[in-house]
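Below is just one:
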Amino acid sequence: MDESPTPVLDVLLHPIRWRIVQRALGREVTTTDLKRDLPDIPTTTLYRHVAALIDAGYLTVVRERKIRGTTERTLSLDQTKVGRIDERSDCRSECRVWSIFREPQRIGSGSS
């Protein structure tokens, strides 16, 4: 039996991973940027979730540089992987949930 990749929902709908993905949409980020943008997330937790997104293929390391004895990685959202979500034939429920997050929702617009 073929081993399928981690389902979209398992990876992206974790609240911390989703916040990381939101910060990476349309721009390159470093973990330093993410720590600054997400100060309520402990550093070790942030690194663990960034690693999970890299392992799942949603974040890609686009550049590395040495800074004071450590390696800073610049990350980017893998647009090819994200683009394939809607093209999958077996993604009915996953795509519906994904589209909820991609499309702006009007909350409290006055109509019920």
